[in-house]
Amino acid sequence: MSSFTPFKDKMEQAGVSEAAIKSFERNYAILCEGSSTDISEDSIEPVEKLPELAEISRDGEEFDPVLLAQTVVIKLNGGLGTSMGLQKAKSLLEVKEGATFLDIIVDQISYLRESTGAQVKFLLMNSFSTSEDTLEHLSQYAERGLAAKDEVELHQNQIPKIHAESLEPVVFPENPSLEWCPPGHGDLYPAIAGSGWLERLLADGVKYAFVSNSDNLGAVLDPGILRYFAESGKPFLMEATRRTEADKKGGHLAIRKSDQQMLLREVAQCPEGDIAEFQNVEKHQYFNTNSLWINLESLKAELESQGGVLPLPVIINKKTVDPRNKGSQAVYQLETAMGAAIECFKGADAICVPRSRFAPVKTTADLFALRSDAYETTEDGRIALLAERGGKPPVVSLSDEYKLVDSLEGLGVPSLKGADKLSLSGPVRFADAVEILGSVSIKNESEETSWVANGRYQDEEVVL
Fold this sequence. Notes:
This protein has 464 residues and is α/β, with parallel strands linked by helices. The chain is built from 13 helices and 25 strands. It has helices at residues 5-13, 18-33, 53-56, 65-68, 101-116, 131-138, 149-152, 188-194, 197-203, 223-232, 275-278, 296-305, 364-370; strands at 44-46, 71-77, 94-96, 99-100, 121-126, 153-155, 159-160, 162-163, 180-181, 208-213, 236-242, 252-256, 262-265, 286-295, 315-320, 330-335, 349-352, 375-377, 383-385, 395-398, 415-425, 428-430, 434-443, 450-452, 455-463. The protein starts with a helix and ends with a strand. Belongs to the UDPGP type 1 family.
């Protein structure tokens, strides 16, 4: 195996924490060993049934202020949204009526504090790319106690890219910043330990962490889940939901046959020959919403028993050092997923939550749907799928000219309350009163922009 010393020296010089260095060292050793990181279909069995949120909740249940005071809400906020043409934190993207993701999250935390009297703690896991923009935006909320860097920021680590041939730290003098990459959201564990936040939270009497993505506005603290998690004594709880065709590429839950341990399988860990089974949403029914509940005392104990490193499955990505230049040096980037920690805790579990708790934005099509009337703003600050849709979001498909956020400006948003699927191709604009019902395809094959006239469109193909 190549020496780890050059990596350690480079990371120490950059001020990377010991916890992050140890985690990277473990993952680097796995890369050097050359063993497969795949999870084959014949090594697992599907999860047949999970407890439903409705089964563990109580009618009219309200928050227990004592439990709330023992809880921290952590939002993953490291993404730039570059795939949508953004050069700033994706959480600063406008979602509804002048409000960004971050504004809505702040309102959610403020609502909790004001409605219960409990000063629930709040952290944003920012990356090197999102920290400055995010903290600047938060400065307007100083009076709410949600602006001070040392009170709200958990900083994500950065790790070296690895030369694909020599397995040494890559050197790229043209742009040294490209010698580094994010380690995936599995970095939550070394980040919270290495930053001192784990000890600090425990010292403040905080026992429970609720972690979710900043682009998932349906993920808010829930009184029933919090009570259930606290009473259960479980070390780790994942929120999962039913897979639909729109989710078939997302990681799913499974049971490892060898020891009956629940695990998470991502598509990057699936052998090519098993992709069809991976995407079988009837067989593998549950996928990870990336909303997790973690007992911080259990996390500390597990880290101590494992020498400071959670043994998360490693995802090995082969890329180029300059992602915009496919001819540049081939490198390995090592990532871990925070949900994969479900296999690191004995007694870890999952529950099935309704689709209203899962409304992420990964593409402009997701944003287009979220801005529509198929989603509503709830009293507690969530952007949630309408209850009448029975947990099924409208599936929106946009052609390539709508890949960037700017392309949505002036497009208009039709009513999608009754839509199953909307496919849009070519330059179009929606009039103010367009209603989509069922499955509708709208095409404009010319280069001139055409308007979709006011009216109701149902189960049809519209050629403009």
